[in-house]
Design a protein that fits this description.
The chain is of the alpha/beta class. It has nine helices and 13 strands. The longest helix is centred in the C-terminal third of the chain and has 25 residues.
């Protein structure tokens, strides 16, 4: 009997995602013994500090990637929005699953739409991307950091510490809590995080056996769109520390990509769109990033990074 060890973060959502992959693998390969190996990452340990202040994206994958490199697991399941654009040399994302709803969800203490909430409402989010876009539309809101698992965040809302909180719709749906959602924000209102809603399958690049077993999980359209989004992010040298967003969608034989860079206070937002052949999605992402940089994004990012971009 073949055995596959699946590494994942230990949160309820991450375990759900890993089990979803496990079930697909065992359906595809009868007799396979797929086992979940929870791994606690630095991002799971540090819950009282905003992500932007403790290192950004790599916080949720480094320990899992080390286990992969050490041979303690055979594959890793990540939320693609958590995966840095630079991967260790011997590892690769060989599968990107079909994307769940990429939009952001509002869970509020009242059914009023987010932008109609009273002045000075307290909005909870762990994301500078969301913070910037909210403040661009409602600069009077008080945006406060919100960390922890989904149930913890919901409890903080119920305790009255926030008037509304923002979460990825995909995660709320996967945990079957969509009845809690009071509003789903359109892509136009809130451009999503890079890779939001998609899962990534990471393996050792020399592990041909595992590659052969997991390759069917790759969804071509999602993979192409996410690759374009990640190329945009890579060109900007962005991460959780900066308000960067992008969303790609397939339109016949092309990818339509929207990208955004904003100041943390939302006073400056550069948002542009481009399109190109689906086979050239990475080139599209880099090209759109250059356009955003030229339109004012460079100045925003240089201020945030406190250095000059190349």
């Amino acid at each position: 009997m073949d055995t596959l060890r699946i590494g994942t973060r230990g949160s309820r959502l991450a375990i759900w995602q890993a089990n979803w992959v496990k079930d697909r693998l065992e359906e595809r390969h009868p007799g396979l013994d797929a086992r979940i190996v929870p791994i606690k990452t630095l991002g799971d340990k540090i819950l009282d500090v905003p992500l932007a202040k403790v290192g950004g994206k790599g916080l949720f994958v480094k320990e899992i990637e080390k286990a992969l490199l050490d041979g303690d697991i055979d594959l890793a399941v990540h939320s693609m929005k958590d995966v840095p654009t630079d991967l260790p040399e011997k590892l690769g994302i060989v599968g990107v699953t079909e994307r769940e709803d990429p939009r952001d969800a509002v869970i509020a203490n009242s059914p009023v739409p987010l932008l109609n909430l009273p002045a000075c409402s307290r909005i909870g989010t762990s994301s500078l991307r969301r913070q910037a876009q909210i403040l661009a539309a409602r600069p009077d809101f008080e945006v406060l950091p919100l960390r922890g698992n989904l149930n913890t965040r919901l409890q903080k809302l119920r305790d009255g510490r926030f008037d509304a909180i923002l979460l990825a719709t995909a995660g709320v749906k996967r945990l079957e809590l969509e009845n809690q959602i009071t509003e789903i924000l359109s892509i136009e209102a809130m451009l999503p995080a890079i890779g939001q809603g998609a899962l990534g399958i990471e393996i050792r690049l020399d592990d041909e056996k595992t590659l052969g077993m997991v390759s069917f999980l790759d969804h071509e359209v999602t993979h192409l769109c996410v690759a374009s989004e990640r190329s945009f992010l890579h060109r900007l040298e962005g991460g959780c520390q900066v308000p960067v967003a992008a969303h790609g969608r397939r339109d016949k034989e092309e990818i339509v990509l929207e990208g955004l860079v904003a100041s943390v206070d939302g006073k400056r937002v550069i948002r542009l769109e481009d399109r190109g052949p689906a086979s050239e999605g990475e080139e599209l992402g880099a090209r759109l990033a250059d356009r955003v940089l030229s339109a004012g994004g460079r100045e925003i990012l240089e201020e945030l990074y406190c250095r000059e971009l190349s």
